[in-house]
Amino acid sequence: MAYFANRGVYVIGTDVNPSTVQSINSGNVLIPNLERWLGFEIKPLVREGLIRATESWKDLLAEDIRVHLIAVPTERGGEPWNDPTIDVATKLSQRTPTAKRPDLIIVESTLTPGTLDNVVARTLQQKDRKVGFEYLVGVAPRRDWFESPEKNLKSLKRVIGGTTPETTEAMRRVLGLVCDNLIEATDHHVVEIVKSVENSILHVCSVYAMQLSRAYPHINVCEVLRLASTHWRIPLYYPSVGTGGYCVPVSTKYVKSGAACPEALGIADETINYDVNQPIFIADLIGKKAGGSIGILGLAYKRDLKVHTLSPTIRIVERLRNLGKDVRVHDPFYTREEVLNIAGTETFQYPYELKAFGGLIIVPSHTLYERTPRRTLFENLRRGQVILDNLGTWERWRTDFLEIGINYHRVGDRDWCTG
Q: Which of 21, 61, 180, 254 supports an S-S bond with 53, CB 3.0-4.6 Å?
């Protein structure tokens, strides 16, 4: 919405959450740090009437609205889920477009292969709407990387594909207003699977890094992987406490559930099962190593982003509570009530209550944690604590931790899961 509005295009969005609608109409950005990624402010666009949100989906059926972008959730509880997609397609089918001025529907959500034909197109056709004539339907999955302002909607490469060549051309004209790097696929079947495959490749490699770190506990696997990545064909992967977010943990399930021969994807089952169990392994490890209560830094799955979908923190907390451990969670982007509702446990003050814990786990490397002054941090830690650092947020102080008797390890370094 923001990018189109910034190009002078009138945009209206709908959401079932009243607070989301209210926030957008007041010009507030719901996701912290999003304006830094966008590179421009939202409020002027709202004041000029270029952006409007509504709870009434019927407002989107107005005659002058010819382009519809579907960006609904397609997972629930870590499994592919088509109900919102069916709901939106059913609502859009109530329009009365004409073949002379067909509507363009672009699905931005990650899809199980086959969904565009079997769910979106079929739902429209059940209402006697002709795909390719009254409706042009295509897929253009979003690629977001909120950590870097240089990697934004305008600059990132984006794959597009429609059910007809005319649809792909229409998508190119519309999305070309806000995206500089559009790549056209031969058809929608190809582009529909691209997002799932690219994320499942990340998923498989991330899990392999986890496995290596547990298979070779007496070797610094983080260093091994860093050196391996100096080869021009190998990206850098690190072991972790588990993957999280909307895309990567579910991507392998999307790929497998849409496959004509799912039995050929044995690596998918191994990846899914290992990733689900990694937070349990982490919880058992810290529970065994650390005496007393456990503090977890970060409810979100990713740095400086208020998104907790499938965050490994949630599974770690659940396991620790089942083990009878007192566990609390801090995240600068979440209130006490939010932490309690999402993770089922209390929060604590950072960094002033760090001494209360026998063990600490740092999950996302939030800027707050990374930039805590050394003196402030060490004044609030104590001898005998165990710190397990997911991504090396405090790795630069490894020697200092050792000198004052703190057992610090980054996931995947030497002896991180032994003793």
A: 21
